[in-house]
Amino acid sequence: MVLPHLRAAYNLARWLLRNDHDAEDVTQEAIVRAFRFFDGFSGDNPRAWLLSVVRNSAYTFLSQNRARELGTEFDEVLHSEPAANGRASETPEVLVLRSAQQRFLNEAVEALPVEFREVFVLREMEGLSYKEIADVARIPIGTVMSRLSRARRQLQAAVVRGEQAGSAS
Amino acid sequence: MNCAETKRLIDAYVDNELDLRGAIEVEEHVARCPGCSAEERALRELQASARANLIRYAPSPEFDARLREAVHAEVKEPAPAVEAPPRVARPRRAWKWAALAPVAAAAALLIVASPRLWPPPSEASVRDAVIAAHVRSLLANHLTDVASSDQHTVKPWFQGKLDYSVSVTDWAAEGYPLVGGRLDYVEDTPAAALVYRRAQHVVNLFVWPSKRAGDEPLQHVSRRGYGAYSWTKDGMHYWAVSDLNDTELQKFVELVRGRRE
After folding, report:
1. How many domains are there within chain A?
2. Which strands, in side-by-side order, build the sheet including B201-209?
């Protein structure tokens, strides 16, 4: 029931936590918990359900280890710069990125506050509906809409900035 | 439809989340407004770019293997306290088993943690069990077995399921409306869970008979971002758990305790 969605679970954890090690710990904890408490679960949307378990485990982890990253108001200055020292650029995946556009976009998504990042990732990578995102993130649908919209405006601006910087140098 | 309204709805429009009428209205406006049309194009470009370019992180083969092993261990070792549920998925029944899972999980943890003796539940383990029960009620979309804001519906529901009586009060006027009730387990004890809401937050009030004589004063603990207050009065043990801020949870606790003075 749950294993087919392992990749989606890991991908979400990785995007929320931004490093492999923590993402592995959180994914494993979430999946074991899913099995232990719910016998593998058998509802009508196991994938969205598993993503919500992962999401909650990730938030618990953040609140215990990196509370600073939670509850950030959207601060245009703080979050308008791409990830400073390119955490992501060291990973092998990034080395094979084909274009600057790819890099700008990935860095810009990483730089979003986690509450906005999760909504964007759930929508664009997992293709969840607003209702499903609302359930996973436990926020009203109106908040899904406004966070998604702000995340996109922020990303558009960041990609433009990245392209300008690229052409200037 | 004007530009301001269109801007508000355009994300939902490109995500196909608008109803037919809304979608047609946005479409008509976009067709004759160059600004909003550019906005729509930019959004669709971002969407296409995100889908094509965002890194889809894959678990490493080692991690994948480790995880499958962990899951395998879970499946192979059904906890001893309950009869193993059938492996075949039966959607309706699944939640009934889920209600028993805490017992199994607590038993499994105890076995792992102390192979020699079976310790009586400590304060800390009760606290963890209560918080776990709270989290589970949110995770599983299994907040209530009986959904009602009417205390005269919720109270009788518990009769016949518990061998003690639980008083139920709706605190809607004070800002804590009753949502319903649920049968839960704390350690191996069946407990009544009364569910209240405060804005977006849920408060679970667990009630079960105390094994010890005498009242116990109010205690507060917080853990994993959840706050909990516990006390014992007139032979009943109370735990109020929520992710509410402390002031509001405290106010709720005062309401509940006040009722019994």
Report:
1. 2
2. B146-147, B178-186, B189-198, B201-209, B236-242, B226-233, B216-223
Q: State the ipTM, two decimals.
A: 0.81
Residues A49 and A37 in one domain: yes
**Cβ neighbours around B153 below 10 Å, total:** 15
**Nearest-angstrom CA–CA distance, B209 and A46:** 36
d(CA B252, CA B194): 13
A32, A37, A145 member nearest B101 (Cβ): A37
In DSSP notation, A6-68 reads: HHHHHHHHHHHH-SHHHHHHHHHHHHHHHHHHHTT--SS-HHHHHHHHHHHHHHHHHHHH-GG
Residues of chain B contacting A3 with CB distance shorter than 8 Å: 68, 71
**Same-domain status, A48 and A101:** no
Question: Which single residue is written with the structure tokens 């804005």?
Answer: B199
User: Which candidate, B98, B60, B102, places its Cα nearest to that of B81?
Assistant: B102
Please provide residue A54's backbone torsions phi and psi, each rounded to the nearest 5 degrees: -60, -45
Query: Is B76 an 8 Å CB contact of chain A?
Result: no
CATH of the domain at A147: 1.10.10.10
B96 class by beta-carbon count within 10 Å (0-12 exposed, 13-18 middle, 19+ buried) = exposed
In this structure, are residues B172 and B149 in contact, taking their beta carbons and an 8 Å threshold? yes
Angstrom distance (rounded) from CA A52 to CA A5: 12
Q: Does domain B93-259 have CATH number 3.30.565.10?
A: no
Partner residue opposite A63 with nearest CB, options B74, B91, B225: B225
Domain ranges of chain B: 3-53, 93-259
Residue A132, domain extent:
72-169
Do A86 and A59 fall into the same domain?
A: no
A20 shares a domain with A83: no
Q: Tens-of-pLDDT digits for all 261 residues of chain B?
A: 899 999 999 999 999 998 888 899 999 999 999 999 999 999 999 999 898 889 988 888 888 888 877 777 766 654 444 444 444 444 444 444 444 455 455 444 443 433 333 344 566 778 888 887 887 777 655 677 788 888 888 888 888 788 888 889 999 999 999 988 888 888 777 899 999 999 888 899 999 988 877 888 888 888 777 889 999 988 899 999 998 888 999 999 999 988 644
Q: Which of B18, B57, B135 to probe by mutation at the A interface, max A CB count within 10 Å?
A: B57
